[in-house]
Amino acid sequence: MKFPHQPRARQFLLYLLVCLAALVLPTAVMAENGPPPLLLGTAWYPEQWPESRWEQDLTLMQQAHIHFVRVGEFAWNKMEPAEGQYDFDWLERAVNLAGKHGIYVVLGTPTATPPAWLTQKYPETLRVDDTGRRDEHGNRAQYNWASPKYRELAREIAGRMAKRFGHNPYVIGWQIDNEYSQTSSDPATQKIFQDWLKQHYGTLDNMNQRWSGQYWSEWYSDWSQIPIPLHGGIDSGNPGILLSWRRFTSDTWRSYQKNQIDAIRPECDPRMFITTNTMGFFIWYDHYVPQQDLDMSAWDDYFSNGKVDPAANGAAHDLTRGFKQKNFWVMETQPGFVNWSDVNPPLAPGADRAAAWHDVAHGADAVGYWQWRSALNGQEQYHGTLVGPDGTPVPIYPEIQRTGAEFERAGAVLKDTHVESQVAILHSYESRWAIEWQPQSSKFDPIEQLISYYRPLREIAQSIDIIPATRSLSQYKLVVAPAYNLITAEEAQNLIAYVNGGGNLVLGPRSGMKDIDNALQVERQPGPLVPLLGGRVEQYYSLTQPVPAEGKLGSMTAEIWAEALSTKAPDDEVLLTYGKSNGWLDHAPAIITRKVSKGSITYVGACFDAASMKTLADWMARNAGLTTPLPNVPAGVEASQRYGANHVVTILVNFSGSEKDVPLPIPMDNVLEGGKMSTVHLVNYGVAVLDHPR
Ligand code: GAL
What we know:
Blueprint: H1 8-33, E1 39-43, H2 51-63, E2 68-71, H3 76-79, H4 89-100, E3 104-108, H5 116-121, H6 148-165, E4 171-175, H7 187-201, H8 204-210, H9 239-264, E5 273-275, E6 277-278, H10 288-291, E7 298-301, H11 310-324, E8 328-333, H12 351-361, E9 364-369, H13 397-414, E10 423-426, H14 429-437, H15 446-461, E11 464-467, E12 478-481, H16 489-500, E13 504-507, H17 530-533, E14 535-542, E15 547-551, E16 554-567, E17 572-578, E18 589-596, E19 599-604, E20 606-608, H18 610-624, E21 637-643, E22 647-654, E23 660-670, E24 676-682, E25 687-693
Parallel strand pairs: 1-2, 1-9, 2-3, 3-4, 4-5, 6-7, 7-8, 8-9, 10-11, 10-12, 12-13, 13-19
Antiparallel strand pairs: 14-16, 15-16, 15-17, 16-20, 17-18, 18-19, 21-22, 22-25, 23-24, 23-25
Bound molecules: beta-D-galactopyranose.
């Protein structure tokens, strides 16, 4: 840097001033403005690299328009190399250097990977599997989530991090741990579980009754007799104990997380969020439980088969958005390919960018790539990255760079926009567990059921919320509960109030079979909703062959599962009847509906093929008066809206496999390329972001 026409001393002074300003100004500006509204980011592991390399990495990130890094979540050993010896200096240098490059930081608490000294000294912090084998060092998530000692140590490291970084201008938020998953079956945890049961059921008598304890001598005369069900309940156990174990697991994740939140929150600026990264439809705990204590939801979005299915992936986004019913983050996604599947094909050129916009379309405000650069050693050497082992960009880098530039361009328009939906699909972990334990047909997959409704309805309504049945429902024109197997009295009350208030409720097959203890409802299906429906399920059948069905809805084909329905109320209407099949189902009602004040309740008794689901979705849309925000969108192009106070951002992503034209009802601003458009031409994986008044 040279300042012509100035004496040497003054030159030096000026130089010093400029350097100081360069250091201080971005800090002030970044802290004051906060992060951009739409962020592209990456997981960065500075602890794995010489510090001399950081500058180059951050420069390459900056050139890719990356504005956040998530760091620290596996670096406990580097932060505390020996018990009580803390070293956060390196992390602070990394965070501050990122800040100098316009890159904000999400700090991960490192509790998914305790150091070797820790588990050696406190072996009781290691999880024990069903066979009684204690986990060992060298992988991750080897800790016991219920261990009081582990919590004490986790609280200490999280609290110390927060004390050090709670006011750092570049730190915008915290990720607790990483992808909660494993439980422990050690005797100490068994005792905690027994205490939880005591608290939950009060008396053994009550618990035994509710679990039908006289079945197979499953009657307990002392709390200490109660086992932890094997394989987290996948293989065996009374449905009541299985459900209790998963509820206990979920509560324990909540308290595990709360332990760290309580250490971090008091030490931080209120502007910082606290989140954790979940895994889509991961089933081992009830995510609605720990999510209550977080500021924001975030998930890790991977396509192990190299394909983006916009319905399946969109549903996982909408599930995550539904945790807190607000915008969320995609904390991790793959640059190209993963390493943990049988075959790990890459996403096609352009598909990563399309997927990033698909994320935003569903309410993501940030997309983070895992990971920046692969560690030279370790378990994930083959995973996709942005730069190679030599530290220079790999072929996908320019695509991500383009996405980053677009995020910068579109940020202002997307600021303070959110998703609005006319339709809610109800989702319950308890229902999924209940079916997983006793599937009756191995072909019946509750998530596939959910997606079979989601796919055609999303095309019509262009947005769907996925939420549990306990939430407020009155804003929805249509509420669909596919395979809502377990309905508690509280949920039933909410659903009945929704229908009585004019809502349209559609229950899918297997709904309302179980009660709050995973016991059979004595009314048969749909349990507490039988009186409102005025009909019920007489019997259920696993199918080995497709079954034809006919009626007011036209011709449809049932598969996998079918229930013979009956109508008792005179105003029940049969919409579909089974044709000839297994003898038991022949000519029985397959779909029935009943008007209730201004609303309706419908029971769909079978799984249907894709064409039939489209027919059914069209009927549901007509019955509930759904509208299509952007009509005439060709099949395979996903249209979504994010709403601001007085404008709408429409996002189109072409997943059809070929070029498509989308006619617009009014000219709209082309956010990514400038100008106005009346027709959008999209190449395969093409994206358009359009802004127009509300
Ligand atoms: C995630 C995990 C990351 C990384 C990634 C690889 O589940 O959070 O740390 O392992 O998978 O796909």
